[in-house]
Amino acid sequence: MFDWGKSYMLFGPEESLAECQTIEFKEASVCLPDDVWETYSAFANTEGGKIVLGVAEPSPGVFKVEGVGDARTVMRQFWENVRNPQRVENDVMLPDGVSIDCSYGVDLVVVNVPRAERHMRPVRVYDKKMKSFVAFVRRDVIDTRCNDFEMRLLEYDALPAADRRAIEELDISALDGNTIASYRRLFNGNKPGHPWSLESDADFLYKIGALAKDRTGRLCPTLAGLLAFGHEYEIVGHLPYFLLDYRNESSGNARWDDRLTSNSGDWSGNLFDFYFAVMPKIDALLLTPLSVSQDGASHRFTNDVKDAVHEALANALVHAYYGGQSTVRVIVKDEQIVFENAGSFLVDRNVAIAGGISDPRNPTLMRIFGMVGISDRAGSGLCTIYATWKKKYGSAPRLSESYAPAKVVFELPIDCSVAGDAGIRGTVDEDTLLLLCRKEQGITAEEAAQFFGVLPRAIQKRMKKLESNGVVVHEKKGRSFYYRVRQTEK
Predict the structure, then answer these.
(1) Together in a domain, 124 and 187
(2) Which of 64, 112, 200, 221 is least enclosed by beta carbons within 10 angstroms?
């Protein structure tokens, strides 16, 4: 007979019950347990989740459904406490956030804790042992007290424009003059005739939000201005863990084929210059070079794929948290491009992907980039990237969040076999490829890719097949692999 009860068990059969990042079980046979507030705070400060009251844990990792003796009373106790400012600093619950589930034959109380909106973080609860309010975060199945880095991130996100604050110990000399000049040329090209074009550098930077007045009226860099235009050594003096890192690991021949880091000392090391240094590197790999006007000021994207990649790069820079232990990393691999930025999601990831809501961690930085046509979308960036990738590559990007330290990872998978016109030109003729391999020293995948107008990984895949069939061999010379036709014995 079909067991309708089991088929509608909220969390599956009892023997398969398990806690995770967003599910916590607690025994509540008599009353509301005290430790429910640690989990409430942890869920609110992280991804949100469900607290299920009425499930015991007789041994580690083994759960038993026992039920709640008086579910209505437990619900009332929860609502009374969550609205009590002496117990909970911020009530993030929705009106229908607590319910009774009977799918296991007993009453369970299910508390749906949403991710707290940024202005309500950190969500603290009163700790009776500490005799103070404490904030928790969720780490897998553990509720743990926030460390200093996590508290700073939560407090930073709670401020509406944290990147607009003036850094009073610095002045305009902390900013790179060449970067400012490049930005102003781009601004003039994108906004010809704009009245700000006639302003001095100091007045111009003040109006775009890169400078602010301190308590005495002196102009000094804002956090956004320092990040966008500052000398790397000045940025690190204020943000010790600041690092921008680009790596091309697409060939698989070495640890990396190309790398650019902000701490190399041979360039400014700021966000604006990093964006325009990395953009052409990725464009070259995608074989969709940037179209730039003759005056070098304005830019236009030539296709949807490149547009999406540039948006992903801008998103990583604008949404990163720069006060933590890591910042921004861009890695080009054989089958994907990966963008990593420090910080957590500010809105639910599904809401962000759906589009229509723009809630940048660094709104002043987004304004600075947006005024020259970079990252100027009204909350539609991720939505557009997803649509483009599904259309061109037949697969969706992967957006994930990890912790310790908090980090957002955005992966754009690239499948050469279905790319079509998605930034990949030309086809590989096998006879011509073998002819190239007959050169005395052979040919590298990069050289063959340039000849055919395809990505190096497309050549690498073809060479791997030819090598497995015994047609070509490869040997390493320096940092590169050279392919040549196998010599047959006479």
Answers:
(1) no
(2) 200
Q: Which long-range contacts (CB under 8 A, 24 or more apart) does 212-219 make?
A: 212/164, 212/165, 212/166, 213/166, 214/166, 214/168, 215/168, 218/171, 219/171, 219/172
For residue range 57-66, list pLDDT tens digits in order: 999 999 999 9
Token pair, residue 388, equals 């483009």
The domain spanning residue 360 has which CATH number? Answer: 3.30.565.60
Exposure of 485 by Cβ count < 10 A (0-12 exposed, 13-18 middle, 19+ buried)? middle
Cβ atoms of 434 and 485 closer than 8 Å = yes
Q: How many domains does the chain have?
A: 3
Domain residues for 434? 430-485
Rounded to 10 degrees, the C-alpha dihedral 290/185/242/255 comes to 30
Secondary structure (3-state) at 252: coil
pLDDT in tens, 151-201: 999 999 999 899 999 999 999 999 999 999 999 999 999 999 999 999 999
Query: Residues 49, 107: one domain?
Result: yes
